[in-house]
Design brief:
By secondary structure, this protein is an alpha/beta fold. The protein has eleven helices and 16 strands. 41% of the residues lie in helices and 17% in strands. The strands form four sheets. Strands 6-5-4-7-10-15-16 form a seven-stranded mixed β-sheet.
Length: 348
């Protein structure tokens, strides 16, 4: 495997997901501002990975802080939290990780400035380790939903690259293989950033899991021909009613799956649940640069001056979701009840 995110004494090290699969390069973020820029520019992406990276960015910033007393260190903590929170609005794991680091900071501060710095570093490393453990538990729960020989469609990248390691949707597939099941995967391109073509295909090929790349508009055709058995995706935020925000195009896949009678599974940790929201209508949707639509790797595809929309996410309503897999088990409708129960359950 490879490191998506790595903590070093003087840096947060990230595999550069902008240049995969043609180059495997790592970016060394040597201060919190560089970490924030890496999140904003999609050096790192994927909701769980963004959360882990933000926690490490806060720990790095506090380690480099010159604050000599509790008041000054708290001011630095508030500035770091605001810096990281301003990077990307949709993935709730970012805000979950920042809030967890804030709570730990207040818990540690009475022990002194140096103890707080050391404790915050340990907390960020714990968040990293726990993410991998949660992914493996999700995989163990989710693989039970897959039959031997399953032919799976996945959208975007919800693998090791989107997490601290192992993955959510791809973790479910990895767990099925580890359980001795034969599976094959259709990875759609996932325009406009091509996470499926560049990242998911690369990951699955490294693992030796059979994968076929398709364009986004081929999914319905293959479903109609009976060549797909289910769809599995990750999530960036899940509202209290089970509405799911994920990479743009997920909603289309869910509609197609429903039309063809195929299960549509979502795999995400409880840190992705936002039970404060009553529905997906309340989830903020990030709009990104027009260049991601008009250009691929610097080459212009569209005419100059054309109007562009580039919402990075869409919302899949809960009635299209067959099940939501998290580290504590599998939620099914009615999601208002099952998500709250699993969010408060000890890890199974």
């Amino acid at each position: 495997m490879f490191d998506t995110i790595r903590w070093e004494d003087d840096a947060v090290v990230l595999i550069d997901q902008r240049v995969l699969p043609t180059r495997e390069e790592y970016v060394h973020c040597r201060d919190a501002a560089a970490v924030a820029e890496a999140i904003r520019n999609m050096v790192v992406r994927g909701a769980p990975a963004i959360g882990v990276t933000a926690a490490m960015g806060i720990a790095l910033g506090l380690k480099q802080s010159r604050a000599a007393d509790a008041r000054a260190l708290r001011g630095d903590m508030e500035s770091l939290a605001a810096l990281l929170a301003a990077t990307r609005p949709t993935a709730v794991n970012l805000f979950w990780a920042i809030d967890r680091m804030k709570r730990k900071f207040e818990e540690l501060l009475p022990e002194g400035v140096e103890a707080t710095r050391a404790g915050m570093e340990k907390e960020a490393i714990s968040i990293h380790r726990e993410d991998i453990e949660m992914n493996r538990r999700m995989g163990a729960h989710g693989e039970k939903l897959l039959k031997d020989g399953a032919r799976i469609l996945t959208h975007c990248n919800a693998g090791a690259l989107a997490t601290a390691g192992y993955g959510t949707a791809l973790g479910m597939m990895r767990a099925a293989v580890e359980a001795g099941k034969r599976i094959s995967v259709f990875s759609d391109e996932t325009r406009p950033f091509l996470q499926g073509a560049r990242l998911t295909a690369w990951e699955l090929m490294k693992d030796g899991i059979p994968v076929t790349l398709i364009t986004d508009n081929m999914a319905g055709y293959l479903m109609a021909k009976g060549e797909i058995d289910c769809a599995i995706v990750g999530a960036d935020r899940i509202a209290g009613n089970g509405d799911v925000a994920n990479k743009i195009g997920t909603y289309s896949v869910a509609v197609l799956a429903k039309e063809h009678g195929l299960p549509f599974y979502v795999v995400a940790p409880t840190s992705t649940f936002d039970l404060t929201l009553s529905s997906g209508k309340e989830i903020p949707i990030e709009e990104r640069s027009a260049n991601e639509v008009t250009h691929i790797q610097g080459v212009r595809l569209a005419p100059e001056g054309i109007g562009i929309r580039n919402p990075a996410f869409d919302v899949t309503p809960n009635h299209l979701v067959s099940a939501i897999v998290c580290e504590n088990g599998i939620a099914r409708a009615p999601y208002v009840e099952s998500l709250r129960r699993l969010a408060s359950t000890q890890a199974a």
